[in-house]
Design goal:
The chain contains 19 helices and no strands. The chain is mainly alpha-helical.
C-alpha cells in the first residue's frame, strides 16, 4: 500500500465515513446493526461445517499451544488463592444449608443410580481392595489392632498362665520382665498377616459386596442426608487462608508437571482427532446447539452485553482508533487514489 497526501475532498470523505461508522455502532442504529450481524452469522453457521472452517491439525496445534506451551505466571497462584479465600469466607456460606443447593430428590436419584450400577460398584470395590496402598493400610491396621489387644491391660496376654502374675499394675511390666516377648509377638503377628492378607481381603470383598446391596445403600444414604442436609456449606472453620493458598500452589505445581509429560500431549492430540472424526461434518450451528446455544440465546446475550461494551470502547477512545485505522487503510491506498483521479 502506498500512502498519499489526501486531498481536501478525500479527507472530508474519510472524516465523514469515520463519523458514520462511530454513529452506526451506538444507540438504536448500533442495536440494529448487532442484530443483523447475529442473523448473518447464524445463517452462515447453519451452512458451514467445522472442517470447512478449520482443519483438525490446525485446531490440534492451537489446543497444544494453549494447554502445553502457554506460560503460567508465578502470580497466578496468588490470584486464584485470593479469590478462593474470599469466596470461602463469604457469609452466604454460613447462611446456606446443604439442602438449599442440593435438592433431596436429586440426591435420591443419585442414590438410585448408585444402586442400579451394581456391576460398576463391584468393580470399584475389587480394584480398591487389590490396591497395594489399601493392602498396606489394611495390614498395618490389623497389626496394630492385634498388638494393642495382646498387650493392653485388659488384653489376651493377661490370660496366659504364668504371664498374668508378672503384670502387677500395667502390661508394660511384661516387656521388662520377659525381654524379647513383644518382638517375638510382633514378628509372628506380621508373618501371619502377610500370609493371610490375600485371604482376608477376599473375605472382605465378599462381605462388602454382600453388604452394599440396594437396601443398605439407601439406608446409608438416608443417614448421610439426615446428618448433612441442615449443615452450613461453610468450610471456613476447616481451612485457613494459608492452608488454602498452599493447596492452590500445589495444584498449580501438579498442573505444570503434568504439562511436561508426553501423556497430556497424546491425550490432547487424540481428543481433537476424535472430536473431528465425530463432529467434523456437523455445522457450526449444530455444534453450538450441543452446548445449548441457539440463535435466540446468542441474539439475547449480544443485545444485553454488546451495547455496554461498545459504549465503553467509544468512551475510552479505542473504538474510534480502530475505525480510523481500518478506514485509513483504504483511503490511503492506491485503489482509492485511482478512483479519485477517475482512472479506469
Amino acid at each position: 500500500m502506498a500512502e498519499h497526501a489526501r486531498s481536501d475532498l478525500a479527507d472530508r470523505l474519510f472524516q465523514a465515513h469515520v463519523a458514520h461508522e462511530l454513529s452506526a455502532w451506538r444507540g438504536e442504529r448500533g442495536r440494529q446493526r448487532l442484530a443483523g450481524l447475529v442473523d448473518t452469522f447464524w445463517d452462515w453457521a447453519e451452512r458451514t461445517t467445522l472442517t470447512e472452517l478449520v482443519d483438525c491439525d490446525t485446531m490440534g496445534g492451537a489446543a497444544e499451544r494453549l494447554v502445553l506451551d502457554l506460560d503460567l505466571p508465578d502470580q497466578l497462584g496468588g490470584v486464584i488463592g485470593g479469590i478462593a479465600d474470599d469466596l470461602v469466607r463469604l457469609d452466604v456460606n454460613r447462611d446456606t444449608r446443604v439442602r438449599d443447593v442440593i435438592d433431596q430428590s436429586l440426591f435420591d436419584e443419585g442414590v438410585t443410580l448408585a444402586v442400579e450400577l451394581e456391576t460398576l460398584r463391584a468393580r470399584l470395590v475389587q480394584r480398591l481392595l487389590k490396591s497395594p496402598v489399601y493392602t498396606a493400610l489394611a495390614s498395618d491396621i490389623l497389626y496394630q489392632g492385634i498388638k494393642d489387644y495382646i498387650f493392653s491391660d485388659s488384653g489376651a496376654i493377661r490370660s496366659i498362665p504364668g504371664v498374668s502374675r508378672l503384670v502387677k499394675g500395667s502390661s508394660s511390666a511384661v516387656s521388662r520382665r520377659m525381654p524379647g516377648l513383644e518382638a517375638q509377638v510382633e514378628s509372628r503377628v506380621k508373618a501371619y498377616i502377610e500370609a493371610n492378607t490375600a485371604r482376608t481381603l477376599a473375605r472382605t470383598e465378599t462381605y462388602l459386596l454382600e453388604s452394599l446391596d440396594g437396601d443398605r445403600l439407601r439406608a446409608l444414604a438416608d443417614e448421610i442426608w439426615r446428618a448433612a442436609a441442615d449443615k452450613p456449606l461453610s468450610i471456613a472453620d476447616a481451612i485457613d487462608s494459608d492452608e488454602l493458598q498452599r493447596l492452590v500452589d500445589y495444584g498449580l505445581q501438579v498442573w505444570r508437571s503434568l504439562r511436561e509429560t508426553e501423556y497430556l500431549g497424546v491425550m490432547i492430540d487424540q481428543g481433537v482427532q476424535m472430536f473431528f472424526a465425530r463432529h467434523g461434518d456437523d455445522t457450526l450451528a449444530e455444534l453450538m446447539r450441543h452446548v445449548g446455544l441457539e440463535r435466540e440465546v446468542l441474539a439475547g446475550e449480544v443485545a444485553a452485553l454488546a451495547p455496554d461494551i461498545i459504549d465503553g470502547l467509544a468512551e475510552t477512545g479505542l473504538l474510534e482508533t480502530w475505525v480510523r485505522a481500518q478506514l485509513a487503510d483504504f483511503y490511503d491506498s492506491d485503489a482509492f487514489a485511482a478512483v479519485m483521479r477517475g482512472d479506469d
